Amino acid sequence: MKRFARWLLLASLLVCLLSGTAFASTVIAKYGSQGTKVEQVQAMLQQVKLYYGPVDGDFGKLTLEAVKQFQRKYRLSATGMVDKNMYKLLAQKSKLDFDRYRKVWVMEATGYSAQDPGNGSRTATGMYLRKGIVAVDPLLIPLGTRLYIVGYGEAIAADTGGAIRGNNIDLAFNTHGEALRWGRRTVKVYIL
Question: Model's pTM, two decimal places?
Answer without folding.
Answer: 0.75
